[in-house]
Specification:
Layout (H helix, E strand, L loop, with lengths): L18 H7 L5 E4 L6 H4 L5 E5 L3 H12 L1 H9 L9 H13 L3 H14 L27 H11 L2 E4 L3 H7 L4 E5 L22 H18 L3 E6 L2 H6 L4 E8 L11 E9 L10
Parallel strand pairs: 1-2, 1-4, 2-3, 4-5
Antiparallel strand pairs: 5-7, 6-7
Helix pairs in contact: 3-4, 3-6, 3-7, 5-6
């Protein structure tokens, strides 16, 4: 059995632990299109001939492009921040401020990894001004993921990265492509709205639009689409007509470790078996 490859970023809702099961639901194709690439665990642990990896987070896409094109230079610069004297509140908030002021893509990419590994829970969150605002995480010795960066860089030679929304990503898909969507998840309750990672967040309207895009893309263009989300009545209603499967996953967002219970995960596949009569 092939050893799974970890992403070099910590990421809320990452798919690393799910890959064995998730892979079974992904159709075969010439290229995998991911409109919500996140930390890239699905990209790293699948074997498509090529990839189109998209996200609306410019910092994320900029980082991936630099890791792909300037690997050694990036590793040297980023590793320099992973030392004892940089692992304290004062240093962290100084880097966060520099990151928020910087317009240089390379500097932002270096700071982004530092903030990701030293910030609370590896969260990626911005305020309304577009400033990164995750607090310091107080970890004993943050890990510098050099081997994971190198592995990502090698695999990234088969990938194209684009900072675009999911609608544009769908438009760029063509025959032979497979689309995998891992959107910010629908809230488990009216109070659980922890999905605001970039800008205004991903609304329930967006959830419904994504489902519609997926149905139409499979039905009218013959391109299969797999979506993952919480397995709740809302998502089952949204993905009516798709082939549904349930997986279980350990969630690590709760601050209280005892509340990190397994939450069912829904896999909704729209493919060539999807018919017009399944749309009401």
């Amino acid at each position: 059995m092939t050893k799974k490859q970890r992403a070099f970023l910590k990421w809320a809702g990452g798919k690393f632990k799910l890959m064995d099961e998730l892979s079974r639901h992904l159709p075969k194709g010439d290229r995998l299109v991911e409109p919500f690439v996140g930390a890239g665990s699905v990209f790293l642990n699948t074997n498509y001939p090529s990839y189109l990896l998209c996200d609306i987070n410019q910092d994320l896409i900029g980082l991936y492009q630099i890791v792909k094109d300037r690997t050694e230079e990036y590793i040297v610069a980023a590793k320099a921040l992973f030392c004892e004297e940089m692992n304290n509140k004062e240093a962290y908030y100084d880097v966060r401020q520099r990151f928020n002021r910087s317009k240089d893509p390379f500097s932002r990419a270096v700071y982004f990894l530092y903030l990701n590994r030293h910030g609370f829970n590896g969260l990626c969150r911005y305020n309304r001004k577009g400033e990164f605002n995750v607090p310091f995480g107080s970890y004993k010795k943050p890990y510098f993921p050099e081997q994971e960066i190198r592995a990502f860089s090698v695999k990234a030679q088969k990938a194209e990265f684009k900072c675009i929304g999911y609608e544009q990503a769908f438009e760029l898909a063509g025959q032979g492509d497979v689309i995998y969507c891992d959107p910010p998840y629908a809230p488990l309750s009216s109070t659980a709205s922890f999905t605001t990672y970039v800008g205004a967040g991903f609304t329930l309207d967006d959830q419904a639009l994504l489902a519609r895009y997926s149905r139409h893309t499979a039905m009218e263009r013959g391109i299969p689409v797999l979506i993952s989300n919480h397995d709740i009545p809302l998502t089952r209603e949204l993905y009516h007509g798709a082939r549904l499967a349930t997986l279980q996953v350990q969630r690590n967002i709760s601050q209280n470790g005892s509340k990190r219970n397994k939450v069912d995960e829904l896999m909704a596949l729209y493919d060539e078996t999807y018919h017009l009569e399944s749309i009401d």
